[in-house]
From TrEMBL:
Species whose genome carries this gene: Paenibacillus forsythiae
Official protein name in the record: Uncharacterized protein
Organism lineage: Bacteria, Bacillati, Bacillota, Bacilli, Bacillales
Length: 252
């Protein structure tokens, strides 16, 4: 995969925006509502924010400095200052200890001396087949040693959600094929509370299959102009305040 043309993905486009963070939030709210809740709990949003900042802080360091910096220290600076959004003090400490343990294992086991190709960056690429501009936030992307110098894409979620993971894989597939002419080498989804890593072959879906899936997601999430997360007639985003907040949890 030739990654030298990545800047072309952010060229101006007048197509309506398909925002990955709006789709993700809609799927997470739907899962919580179906489980008897009132939508994504505040503690999950706060912890996702802390995790995102911690990983960004950590991988922004040079590899030499990174090796001397405990990730626990960086997480502590970003962690929610109180426990009111958690169900109890015990829940607060359970989540904190679990997330900290998972991050320590994660950052100590891979990419120790590498510099990320993308680090919490938002990109967009026109997708004429859908009459949309796909806007996607990449948390961590690495150069892969696999076929054609391809990419390894990583996503980090506080709690596992198969629908969000599947949607992200399809979006990454469309983005990479449209931008670089080939799928990513792999997509890794990390479910932090579960301590689980799922690794998918980036070529597991064809472009046509992923386009079909994004059509479905656009209807479910209202990304074609219906609902608060839609777009105006000139294609500019008009996300609600809550959606903007969720985007900031994913992109600092």
């Amino acid at each position: 995969m030739d990654t030298s043309c990545g800047a072309a993905a952010n060229s101006a486009s007048r197509l309506p925006k398909f925002h990955d963070y709006i789709v993700e939030r809609a799927l997470l709210d739907m899962a919580e509502t179906n489980g008897g809740g009132n939508g994504l709990p505040l503690w999950r949003q706060q912890v996702q924010y802390a995790v995102g900042h911690t990983l960004n802080d950590y991988y922004s360091l040079t590899p030499g400095v990174r090796a001397q910096t405990p990730v626990q220290f960086l997480l502590e600076r970003r962690w929610p200052p109180g426990f009111r959004s958690f169900s109890s003090m015990m829940h607060y400490w359970h989540v904190k200890n679990r997330i900290c343990d998972t991050l320590v294992r994660l950052v100590g086991s891979s990419h120790e001396r590498e510099v990320p190709f993308m680090l919490y960056e938002q990109w967009h690429v026109p997708v004429p087949e859908l009459q949309m501009d796909l806007s996607i936030i990449f948390q961590l992307v690495w150069h892969s040693g696999g076929r054609g110098g391809s990419l390894n894409v990583q996503k980090f979620m506080v709690c596992g959600n198969a629908d969000v993971a599947r949607g992200f894989i399809h979006m990454a597939n469309v983005f990479c094929r449209k931008t670089y002419g080939a799928p990513p080498e792999s997509v890794e989804i990390h479910f932090l509370m579960e301590g689980e890593r799922r690794r998918y072959d980036g070529n597991m879906y064809s472009l046509e299959a992923s386009l079909d899936y994004l059509r479905l997601l656009s209807v479910l999430s209202g990304e074609r102009g219906w609902g608060s997360g839609g777009c105006t007639s000139n294609g500019e985003s008009r996300s609600a305040a809550g959606e903007d907040t969720w985007a900031r949890h994913l992109l600092m």
